[in-house]
Amino acid sequence: MNHALILPLLVPLFTGALLLFAHSLGRSSKRTLSLLATWSLVPLAIWLLVLADDGQLRVYALGSWQPPFGIVLMLDRLSALMLLVTAVLAGFAVLYACRGDDERGPNFHALYQFQLLGINGAFLTGDLFNLFVFFEILLISSYALLLHGHGQRRVRSGMHYVVLNLLGSSLFLIGVSMLYGLLGTLNMADLAARVSAADPADGPLLAAAGYLLLVVFALKGAILPLYFWLPRAYASATAPVAALFAIMTKVGLYAIVRVFTLIFGNEAGQLSHMVDAWLWPLALLTLGAAVVGALAARNLQVLLAYLVVVSVGTLLAGIALGSEAGLAAALYYLVHSTLIAGALFLLADLIARQRGDLGTDLITAPALQQPLLLGTLFFIGAISVAGLPPFSGFLGKLMLLRAIEPGAEAIALWAVVLVGGLGMLIALSRAGSLVFWRASALAQGHKADPVRLLATTGLLFGSLVLVAAAGPLQTFMQATAAQLLDLRPYLQIVQGGAA
Questions:
Q1: Gyration radius of the chain's alpha carbons
Q2: Quick check: 190 and 125 in contact, CB under 8 A?
Q3: pTM for the complete prediction?
Q4: Do 120 and 206 belong together in one domain?
Q5: H-helix or E-strand containing 205?
Q6: Tens-place pLDDT, residues 240-299
């Protein structure tokens, strides 16, 4: 048994617990411990990605309780990819936080580690109930991180976020209970086998449970009409927290892919692809509504939060295609959108620190201390997120548009994606002109901290890496999509065969 599969859980678990128990440690010691633990996840995730790239499905049974009994972790190409994206994003975000943002409240680094525990666990678990458990871990940590720094604005946004997600957790538990009551298992591979052999009379109840899960994942993933909590919550969070939250919506989308390709996928009989008819219109409506929100935004952080929702709609469109090419395009765009969104949230904070009391409000303000440097970084991020060449956003959207067959759906997707890209470009151009060109007075504030700049440019550099390695990455994404759509290795987990 390869024990490396459980290390992405053990490292943040024990680091977070140590930081809580040793709360009397000095600030520098806590920062060092948190940085070492977070960045150690990067080589670990790379190693797991190399292991997963051979196409073999690896299962880790805790306590040697074989599936479908006990707690099971499952590593395939998709989970390994998500672990790596999370590790890179978290590493740069915590580096940024160590320059002062972690001082705004107690136990920041412990909460940060528990957040990583929940996220990594959600990507690795092979059990639906444990997916609920890891969702709760990451949500409880995110509640505290969202309120980190205090302030009336954060408390108000945090209350909305908490109430909606508690409602989502209740629906999740109801859906899981229905599946367990009908099928007697919550192991995902075992559920896939039992759904296909279920009594047709139980079909409506199984469908109801599946739709409940879709609602929960849509809430976590910020899909229309359940995304209204996101702009205010992300805009009110501190910069490193908002950057880490860029992966949070992807957890919901990951759950949609995992559950509705495995449990309700090709082998589910009468319930095969039961949500496909819903995903396509929801994707286009989410994308369109988010672009309208971005055009109406009067604050840079709110604008960036709406761009996160735009990426959700784009990703959901690729997932809704249900094809290997569509999934591969969505996965490439997922990596791009996560890294660029994190970088832009950090960059917005750098801009706010040089605008005085006006912060990120999109109104005329004193000139920045470093308009050329920050303006260049903003230009790179804006071009990339809007989907213009030569950056990774362009390649991701191009792959998505090429993945759809000619027809009415293709016309709708091309229209929404291209018009939406134009809308994002207009919104970002307006924001850039107000921040960098229309100065009302001499420069104020201090120059950007070098470490904060390093963290921001490190994430932005990810767009260039995605372009430089586009060929190998596209091959890997296609292999990942093919693995997701081939259910035989997953079903062998509970059939006594080797994965």
A1: 22
A2: no
A3: 0.92
A4: yes
A5: helix 203-221
A6: 999 999 998 899 999 999 999 888 877 777 888 888 889 989 999 999 999 999 999 888
